Description:
Elements lengths: L1 H5 L4 H26 L7 H17 L4 H23 L6 H23 L26 H5 L4 H19 L1 H11 L1 H6 L4 H27 L11 H11 L4 H24 L5 H20 L18
Helix pairs in contact: 2-7, 2-10, 2-11, 2-12, 3-4, 3-5, 3-10, 3-11, 4-5, 4-10, 7-8, 7-12, 8-10, 11-12, 11-13, 12-13
Amino acid sequence: MIEALEILTNTSLWAxxxxxxxxxxxxxxxxxxxxxxxxxxxxxxxxMTMGAMAGWLTVYMGGDLWMGLVIAAASGGLMGLLHAGxxxxxxxxxxxxxxxxxxxxSALAYYLYRLIVQVGETPxxxxxxxxxxxxxxxxxxxxxxxxFTQTAPTYLALISVAVLAYVxxxxxxxxxxxxxxENPHAVEAQGLNPNALRIGAIVAGSALMGLxxxxxxxxxxxxxxxxxxxxxxxxxxxxxxxxxxxPGKALIGALLFxxxxxxxxxxxxxxxxxxxxxxLMAPYVLSIVALILVARRAEVPEALMAPYRRGEx
Length: 313
């Protein structure tokens, strides 16, 4: 019991929390932006897989790491554009389209990987982002090793939270996006095009999802394998509800899940006689409990999953 509590005082645990949370932050922000505009994007798992492959492949073929992130975001945006085309102008089922995108993007990513890369017994690797050792700040007791020794994409994720929160709450564009998810007819009455706003939000949100996948292959690891997203996309869908569609709370939700995950990994080394499968499922169980506690108070965008037809009410 004492050893389990001592883990909480280790700065490496909290540094790992921020690192594990990074792809979740990108993913939940992307899903949140889509849903704020009124469209559910269940393609996030596949989009993150495509972003992971595209980012890694770009670096493997000679591009730099930042170019890998750009290509990953672009590939995510393209998958989002496909989802937007099916769900916004055509008004097809957002559930079916999203699941189709997940299957299509995951399969396409693995196909392109096997087509381009010669895979032997050992998967090929790249040189990933290295943790930044920020002078002075990294030497601050406790906070320094936690906050100021992360990789560049982690800081990009944190900046994205602030930017999205500002855009959604402080700008006319953000107001238009939020109103599109609540009452697209009111948006049309103001002379704006709700469908264009929805398509733009889906593409931008999917680009963020692609960045979440790219973090896994360009910072957390240095190689690509098809199952590496490991359900993070579905966790992001749940975190959007936990966050009540607010970027700040989305950050808290991502950090909370990451804490459960990082803590259970360390508990396995100090607690004996407990099947490791129980530790592995603990973050998901605790996340479900947290979701249940807040879901009843969550205010769902009124037009979420409701296709928009001009002139129809």
